[in-house]
Every structure is written in C-alpha cells, then in structure tokens.
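SAMPLE LOG
Freezer: B-3
Tube label: C17
Construct: single chain, 384 aa
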Amino acid sequence: MDDVIVIGAGPAGNTAAWRLAESGLKVLVIEAKAIPRVKPCGGALTSRALDLLPEGFSSYTKSHPTQWTFSNARRQVTITSSTPYCHTVERQYFDQWLAEHAVSRGARLIESSPVTQIEPIAEGYQITTESGSHYTARYLIGADGGHGISARLLGLPRAQNGAAMEVELEVPESLFDKFSSRVEVDIAQYPWGYAWVIPRYPILNIGVGSFRPKKLALKSLLDNYLNFKLGDFRPSSPIKPLAHPLPHRTRLGPLARGHALLVGDAAGLMDAFSAEGIYSALRTGHLAANTILSATKDNLPLDSYNLVIQAEFWPNLRSAIKMAYLFYPLAKFWSEIFFNDTHLLEQYLQVAQGTTTYQQLLHDTEMSLLNHAKIRWPNTRTSE
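STRUCTURE (predicted):
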C-alpha cells in the first residue's frame, strides 16, 4: 500500500507528488496518457508562479515577454513592464520535467493507465485502471484536469467548464518577431472571453476562449482571428486546432472529503478572469502536500484542506471572479476606459507578477467606474 496516490501528472499532481515524496512518503502517480503528452495550453507561467517551481525550470522556458497588448475591434494599447510579464513553456516537456522531478525525489510513475474506478476501503482507497490493475493508498489526490473523473467518483462538486480552441504554428522569423516580446489579448468579439497570441519560439500559440461558450462558434472565431493575425502567411500543412476546457468556479464548494482532495483544474481553481491555470495548479499542489503531510502524522482526514483553500487561496480568486462579472458583460465599455487610462492594465500586469492582488485591482476598477460615472453624469441639480 502507498501513502498517497496522485491521479494525473500535470503541474498540480507532480508538484504535490515531489513535495510528498521528498518528505519521505510512498507516492504513486498514475497518468492516463504516455509522457510526454500533448497538452493544449498557452503555456504562460506568470512571474508569481516561479517561486513554486523546483530549480531548473528556466531550461524549459521559450520566451519572456515584457509587453502586453490589449485590443478591441478599433484600438489597441501596449503596456511594457520592466520585468517579464510571463515566461512561456511547451507544456508537454514542462510537465514531463515536473514528472521526472517527482520520480527523482522518490515517487513512482505509471503511464498510459486511465483510472476507471475509485473505491473507499478501510485503509483508504483502491484505484482501478483501465487494464484492470488495482492500487491502494491511505490518501488520494485528484489531479486529472477539467475532464477528469476524480471529482465525480469522489462525490465532490464539479467545476463549470468554459472552452478554448487553439493552434500552435511554427511561423517565419519575420512574423514571429512581431510577437516575440509580447502577449496579445483581443476582446473584440468573444463574449465572456478573448483571443490571444502567445510567443514560444519558434511557435506562436494562437487561440480563442470563453467562460460561457454555449452557442459560440469557436472554430469560426478562431479561423477569423488566424486570418487577421497571420496576414499573407499560410502554413504548408492543414491547421489542426486543439480544444480544451476552462474549468472554473464562481462559488467555492468542498474540495476534500475523507482522505481525498482535488487540486488544479480538477478542483476548478483556474483564474476566472484571465483563464490562467498553471499558478493555481502549482499553488494547490503545494497546499495539498502541506495538508497531507500534517494529516499523515495521526492518519487524519483532509477536511482542513477546505479551510486552507478558503483562507489562503480563495480570497484572491473570488476577487478575480468579481472582476470577470464586472468586466465581461461590458467588455467594450471597459476597453475604452482602459485605452484612455492604462493604470488598470498596468495593475493587472502587477497581479500576474505577484506585486499586487486581485483585491486591489478590483477596488481600483470599481473606483474607476465611479469616477467615469461622475464625469459622464455630473450632478446637475440647481437651486430652486
């Protein structure tokens, strides 16, 4: 019997695995696919995520954009930061590196083994894979992403799923140079979402996504955006878009029950404003490891994980949700405010760099809205 089974070898699962194995626990990671596996993702590591990574991550970074371009159908503005806005990675090899790091710390890894069943037993849990193999452990971490089965099989509330569609294109250097130092975000025609270009030499990751994709023709929107951004360049082979969910929550429900808990996209803790998920994955991986390390001393359940998430993680994410509800229904209105006063855009970059919080950004955004209202509708009362 293992101490901990981790279902899923993404950033959240691997982070929890290496932390637990390094501390002396017997850890098994079960991954549904062969590693390295293709993972649709922009691959942007925000600066606040770097302290959560083991040493050596820089070997896997592809570019370090210091600019962020915000645009709509009519205008655009570019903000330049003194430090990189993000660091881009190719997810299949970044995830492989994290998995290898977990193994180097003592974890065992089983690949190409989709989990089909999770059953509580007296000592903890029994996991059954597609091949019929059984594995047991005292504790369980569900880290199998937005389409994973852990939440359902454990009886924990599942997240809402938005949707994104993207392509990764190797482009001529002359075209790549236009985007080499910047990330571009376009909100022109993407309800509750946006389109983006993320540079990852020599590839451009280009996509569209929405937190409310129902009735949206994402493929058509992506085709139009590609035509707009690629100009005269056309790839020699057919473009094959990749789709993936955007798992997020608007309300926090329990993420732990008994001796099991959820992390990362399986927990639905993606940033509900920016759709950035790697930081949430890494952070919850660490919080899960901390919780299990404390619980194993007395074989305690993991209820405290719910309190840790609520106290340490949720306040910032809740403010991101409020930002989404403030911004997305009136995205074109807000874009005009941002174009005229770039302070809020600069502050958003600071959130990504970890030098301010979503709480502060939300407060300043609300103040900007009030000031805008005062300018447009001043008090016109006259004395009688």
